[in-house]
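Sanity check

After download, print the first record. It should look like this:
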Amino acid sequence: MLIQLAIMGLLVALIPLTLTWVSNDADKYRKLVWITLFLTFDLIMFGAFTRLTDSGLGCPDWPGCYGHSNPLLAHEHITAAQEAMPTGPVTVAKAWIEMIHRYLAMAVGVLIITLMVIAWRRWIKSGRTELKFRPWFPTLLFLFVCLQGAFGAWTVTMKLQPVIVTIHLLLGLTLLAMLTWLGARQNVHAPVSLPGRALALPALIGLLLLTVQVALGGWVSTNYAALACNDFPLCHGALIPQMDFDNGFTLWRHLGKTADGEYLPFPALTAIHWVHRTFAFVVIGYIAWLAHKALKDGGLLKTGRGLLIVIALQLVTGLATIYLNWPLAIAVVHNGGAALLLLLLVMLNYKTRHAPAVEAARAVPAPF
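Expected structure tokens:
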């Protein structure tokens, strides 16, 4: 089974590897970095779809599905589980969703291994002088994706324990951020003025605020608290509704249960939702201000514009999940918007620190 799963991961990874190999881009390493980043973004979106369709236990073992490499071979077991519990977590559709998610994850792992191998070979071949191929960061990426894989396994074996699922989400977004940083290192950037460079600390603060908000959003999703408040701007008709913070934010507990094993009370779900919703306005306000500042610098203009567009998208999709009773497509887009915000903020952090200065950059070519 493990060999078959490895082959599946390789087959999926062969598509982006082939696209890179046959492309006309002279810098194929750079192209592979950005293709890996794109596939990682797709993986995060599909992971959100897996979570939101309640497919995380579509195959209740790991890494295969009932000991097989694909749901076709496990069809008998899946059908039996579905017949025994028609509304349970195991169905044919959910099994395929979960396994496709795993195949994509393995493909990303293969691509990161490829990046690491290329970096080491080019670094050694250049006599350790070609800074672009310094292998330490790709090696760190490889170690990180192994850690992410471990949390993916624990997500299943620990039956969707909220803290494990939330950490799995945060690690996936951290992997995306690391690939964005690596991709930024491969690009040529427009020069940034001294006032633009002064945004380095505010950009870091924005990244930290977004990380907190993403963690809160992950906690909402993994506890199924998205509809705990179905009105806006109030929650259950009150500015500050009845809430149970102790049970809502107890980290180590089973899904839907308190630390004592009782069913999680509804005020706990309300607290989870309300905190995420309230903190969202802090994040939106801060990132909008940061983007406005970035718009004043030519080297940061595109990033600032992207931040404004995505923050508006997040506000609209967040409100739509409430008013439209949590449509699946909009919920997935909301998750993708968070990933895009992270990508843009990482790029802003890179540019404010490492883009060439205006005074010394008159001969720098136009940005790619």
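If your output differs, re-run the checksum step. Summary of this record's structure: Residues 360-368 have pLDDT under 50 and may be disordered.
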